[in-house]
Predict the structure.
Amino acid sequence: MLKVIKSIREEIFGDEREFDSPHAPTVLELKDGNALAAWFGGRFEKDPDTAIWTARRINGAWEKPRKTVDVVNIAAWNPVLFRLNDDRIVLYYKIGAEIQKWHTEYVISNDEAETWSDAHELITGDIGGRGPVKNKPIYLSDNKTILAPASLEGDCWNSFADISEDNGKSWEMSEFVPLRRVNPNERRIRDRVYNKHFCFGRGIIQPTFWEDKDGVVNALFRSTSSRIFRSESHDKGRTWSLAYDTGLPNNNSGIDVAMLKDGTLILAYNPRENIPGMTKGSRTPIILSYSEDNGVTWNELCVLENDDGAFAYPSIICTNNNEIMVVYSANREKIIFWSIKVEH
């Protein structure tokens, strides 16, 4: 049984800030054990003034947020922090007025987020957003192959892996994760037949990945079907099994998973279904659950927020000393950070 032995909750910034509405945070551990966070912030989502902001937590205190990426008159979205195996930090993000037409760019830091490079396009000519869409990439056990959890949002939502074997210089798009979509208005199907492979609505997006002890790559997905969906890959993310309903509730909001060094999985999510007749559900509470059987069953670890409000888009990492770091947005006004120590 996993239990919390110590936890710290902090607001990364106060009311005095240079942006009105922050959202979609991401977190990374610095080499000295401190933390780095990033998010998008501006007047509101999609507004042309929305930029990518970063802040470092040094010796228990958050530095003043810095505007790290700002494209004039074009909105920036969904930053994702990732450390390459040569110790450089990459900050991926989306640029565009509309999700369906955005593209992915990135900047690199060689000095633990003190300074950042000029921006680069991830894929020349990209429309729709290649590379990580919300959650962190992972290195596979060969310490060479990078899998970036990716998805496209159009009339149908499709998820896939972007694969790099040269430390992020070039990328290969996997096949889409197979999915059986069902019209949400098909009451005959919904009321009379349960099939774990039916996904009601547009589909699945924003995957989060882990590789298990047998070398199988596993993915969990946000969906329009009131459930977290799952798929597996036996060929390093190039092809995927038919996605299926895990039984875990999902309110059509972001999720993220990370793994402790002993293989225990930690999942951050809102355990809520969609509101009947709607495509989204309440974004409270937000919790952490854990699995000791590779995601077959889950147990609640702790409740992060349970008040009225919207607590969403968590990003989670696990350090080598069994510390869990979590960030998420609170009512699109604050970015919350947790440091949680656990033990069995």
